[in-house]
């Protein structure tokens, strides 16, 4: 920093301060108090000592040079932040919001009726002492569906979708009832049953506490990590087991993917992943649960292809209930722009419901009138969904709604 000689400093003119102000501050009106107070303020250091002024000017010039050199933004520059566009809340938008919530809540009825016949049949066989009949129900498949219900329950509880939470809760409870019956018939090993019971109890309790806002964030994070690891371990194992007659039976897929899931979760919690990677790990539990449900109709159709005689054992009423239950949740998934929910619902509605009905029609298990009536009803429902959503959001066409669903606005 340059310094002035002593003689120059001594020759600087002195500054004389006023002994008193020209007017007392108390006599000034409130509206004019600002200028008076500024006149009463003590003089700046630059007036008392020009050396301070020179030093301040040098520092300002140095700071400006550094900003220009390193491309630092000026303090006076205005930063424009463009908020994400929000849909215009019209009367039609509010009506569609309420209607889709009612549709999602109405899905409880077909899903409850879908599991109820199996529960009644198992109860009759247990009372009659016919435990061997319950061995026809694979407990691993029921466990897979139960894990899917628990994962989706946690996903929808975090999004505050009450109707979807109720659907998954009833699905978890009804599936667990079937598992209890399988354990009573000794079809399911007792250690696996006890472990499943502990997971179900913990899942229902933790989801309830989290929905009410009474659960610490750390405990909820541990539960989500557990469901992520469990889903990634079960999904590839179930997919591998579907083709076991043509590939060797092995548990390596579940072990390998489960180990990779543990590594990914640990790295995400230690901050070793990027922001995108951390978000991906956080969404894996919901997607694995969706993929588990999406794989169930694929496995069923593969079984039908290998053994066409099994189609005679399928219930067209159960397939219709599956199509209706999943179809009722499609409008809500489209309305809130939830791609994961939409993918799982429309996949199950078309493949698990309509797809199995198509297989049954090709094998002459159902009438032509029944099949074409359900086909017309499904496509009419999908058309109604996108037509109403287009009007609620004020879009120009249903393709715009689909674009927003898949790619966002």
Automatic annotation (TrEMBL):
The chain crosses the membrane at residues 132-152, 164-184, 190-214, 226-244, 250-268, 280-302, 314-335, 370-387. InterPro entries: MEX1/MEX1-like (IPR034628). GO terms for cellular component: chloroplast envelope. Signal peptide: none annotated. GO terms for molecular function: maltose transmembrane transporter activity. The keyword tRNA-binding does not apply. The keyword Nucleotide-binding does not apply. This is Maltose excess protein 1-like, chloroplastic. It comes from the Eukaryota. Keywords: Membrane, Transmembrane, Transmembrane helix.
């Amino acid at each position: 920093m340059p310094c002035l000689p002593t003689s120059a400093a001594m020759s600087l003119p002195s500054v004389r301060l006023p002994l008193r102000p020209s007017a007392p501050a108390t006599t000034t009106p409130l509206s004019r108090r600002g200028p008076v107070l500024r006149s009463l303020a003590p003089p700046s250091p630059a007036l008392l000592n020009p050396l301070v002024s020179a030093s301040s000017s040098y520092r300002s010039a140095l700071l400006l040079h550094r900003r220009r050199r390193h491309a630092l933004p000026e303090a006076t520059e205005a930063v424009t932040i463009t908020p994400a566009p929000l849909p215009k809340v019209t009367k039609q938008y509010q009506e569609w919001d309420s209607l889709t919530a009612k549709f999602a809540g109405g899905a409880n009825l077909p899903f409850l009726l879908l599991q109820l016949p199996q529960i009644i049949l198992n109860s009759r066989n247990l009372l009659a002492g016919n435990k061997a009949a319950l061995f026809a129900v694979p407990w691993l498949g029921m466990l897979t569906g139960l894990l899917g219900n628990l994962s989706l329950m946690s996903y929808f509880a975090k999004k505050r979708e009450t109707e979807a939470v109720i659907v998954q809760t009833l699905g978890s409870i009804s599936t667990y009832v079937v598992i209890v019956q399988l354990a009573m018939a000794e079809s399911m090993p007792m250690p696996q049953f006890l472990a499943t019971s502990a997971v179900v109890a913990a899942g229902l309790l933790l989801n309830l506490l989290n929905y009410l806002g009474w659960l610490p964030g750390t405990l909820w994070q541990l539960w989500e990590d557990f469901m992520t690891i469990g889903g990634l371990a079960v999904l590839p194992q179930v997919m591998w087991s579907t083709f076991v007659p043509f590939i060797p039976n092995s548990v390596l897929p579940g072990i390998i993917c489960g180990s990779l899931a543990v590594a990914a979760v640990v790295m995400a919690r230690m901050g070793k992943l990027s922001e995108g990677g951390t978000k991906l790990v956080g969404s894996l539990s919901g997607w694995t649960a969706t993929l588990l449900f999406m794989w169930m109709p694929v496995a069923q159709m593969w079984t039908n292809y290998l053994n066409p005689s099994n189609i005679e054992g399928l219930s067209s009423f159960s397939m219709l209930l599956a199509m209706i239950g999943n179809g009722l949740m499609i409008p809500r998934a489209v309305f809130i722009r939830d791609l994961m929910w939409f993918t799982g619902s429309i996949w199950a509605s078309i493949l698990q419901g309509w797809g199995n009905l198509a297989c049954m029609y090709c094998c002459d298990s159902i009438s032509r009138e029944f099949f074409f009536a359900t086909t017309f009803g499904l496509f009419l429902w999908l058309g109604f969904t996108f037509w109403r959503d287009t009007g609620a959001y004020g879009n120009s066409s249903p393709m715009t709604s689909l674009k927003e669903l898949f790619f966002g606005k």
